[in-house]
Amino acid sequence: MDLKQYIRDIAGFPQPGVLFRDITPLLSHPPALRHVIESFATRYQASGVDAVVGIEARGFLFAAPLALRLERPLVPVRKEGKLPFETTSVKYALEYGESAVELHTDAITPGQRVLIVDDLIATGGTMAAAVRLVETSGGVVAGLSAVIELDDLKGRDRLRGYDVHAQVHY
Description:
This protein is of the alpha/beta class and 170 residues long. The protein has helices at residues 24-27, 30-44, 58-70, 125-136, 155-158, and strands spanning 8-11, 19-22, 51-55, 74-79, 87-94, 97-104, 113-121, 140-149, 164-169. The chain has a seven-stranded mixed β-sheet with strand order 5-6-4-3-7-8-9, with helices on both faces. A two-stranded antiparallel sheet has the order 1-2. Helix 2 (30-44) crosses helix 3 (58-70). The chain is globular and about 40 Å long. The protein starts with 7 loop residues before the first strand and ends with a strand.
């Protein structure tokens, strides 16, 4: 399936100079969304993944159905101040700014093999921050997956040493 036909380009969002890849058309087309989830599931079902980490916010849209499909726990990585329990936090640079993400301190157990899922890899900053959170918690990163990878921003370079997978490349 050509997933690019379900991804819309929005120039100047969230700020001038940024070309945003909008996945809402993909989300509104059940066969395309099913294809994304099934492709992830096929890739990871025999990999021994113990949990699926979803990165706020759009990563949740893919991580939740994937965790359900794999019958594994879903672990949310959220923006700073959004989780109600004790957290570990990591600050990181975005393509267009700076942010921080958090994980509950009891979300990952030592040795647990974790798949991290987001909608998009740009500079790799968000994914790298999630990797640090998982590893700080004692987890083992079994894979990094996204629907979209923006190849020109070289986020994969920041994620060297990890199994990085994306379904669509720009």
